[in-house]
Amino acid sequence: MAELLYCRVLTPVQIDDNIIEITLKKLNIQNSFHNSNIDDKTEKYGINSKFFSINKNEEPTFLLAYKRALDAVRINSRTDILNLGINRADEFELISNINKNRLVGIDHSQSALDFAKNRFKAREYLFIKEDINKIDRLNLGKFDLIISIGTLQTPSINFKPFFMSLVQNYLTDDGAIILGFPNSRWIDCELIYGAKAPNYAYSEMSLVFNDVIFCKKYLQQKKFRVTITGREYIFLTATKIGY
């Protein structure tokens, strides 16, 4: 109910043996990184942005769905992992707790990359500042797992051709993919279900479904086994059939 009313639930107070007081506090609708006015576009999600204060791993609905996706791709068997749009590198936190692989993260925010480098200092990690659209000039080779959470759907990326190129040029024959499609908004640091679509006063999910189904059909044609899970973030997980 609190989420539907754009509120957060404060710590319940016990009044007596039979009554617990629950208080809802209204969220500040304008306090959102979606309303960011940072001039430097590369720092829209940088260390001084509202988005940077968010830790997705503290949200149970995100964490559980992401953990299931990692289990589905058999994360312990993956040795070369590419993460597109790392920001704070929250997605690497679970991987680092599971095993030590060679991990490559790409982002265009220098301040976010500096934070991630300080957070994960092991030599297996490589953090690169680059526009994801220009990934080809990095000569990275191929990976057996590609992860991208809430990045490939940004307006600056031509999603469908970029995704097909990613599969064709950066994924090994036995590789796997985890894509996270945002179906939510961060308002006053609270995760609110339902993405806000242009020209709609409510959540309208046609664009999300269009991208998800396109990826599913394309990967199935390439002999991948595909599952779609999650809620606030829709997770598409794909593994090669026969491997």
What's this model, at a glance?
This protein folds into two domains: 1-30, no CATH class; 39-240, Rossmann fold (3-Layer(aba) Sandwich).
Shape: globular
Main sheet specs: 7 strands, mixed
Helix content: 10-25%
Structural class of the helix and strand makeup?
Answer: alpha/beta
Beta strand count: 13
User: What is the total number of structural domains?
Assistant: 2
What is the annotated CATH architecture of the largest domain? 3-Layer(aba) Sandwich
- What's the alpha carbon Rg, rounded to whole Å? 19 Å
CATH classification class of the largest domain: Alpha Beta
* Total helical elements: 5
CATH superfamily of the largest domain: Vaccinia Virus protein VP39
- Please state roughly what percent of the residues sit in beta strands, choosing from under 5%, 5-15%, 15-25%, 25-35%, 35-45% or over 45%: 25-35%
Residue windows where pLDDT falls under 50 for at least 5 positions:
none
State the end-to-end CA separation.
44 Å
Mean pLDDT: 88
Order of helices and strands: EEEEHEHEHEEHEEEHEE
Q: Which sequence of strands runs across the widest sheet?
A: 7-6-5-8-9-13-12
Look up the CATH topology of the largest domain: Rossmann fold
Any overview of this molecule?
25% of the residues lie in helices and 28% in strands. With 243 residues, it is of the alpha/beta class. The protein folds into two domains: 1-30, no CATH class; 39-240, Vaccinia Virus protein VP39 (Rossmann fold, 3-Layer(aba) Sandwich). The strands form four sheets. Strands 7-6-5-8-9-13-12 form a seven-stranded mixed sheet, with helices on both faces. Helix 3 links the parallel strand 6 (102-107) and strand 7 (125-129). Helix 4 (159-170) packs parallel to helix 5 (206-221). It is globular and about 60 Å long. The mean pLDDT is 88.
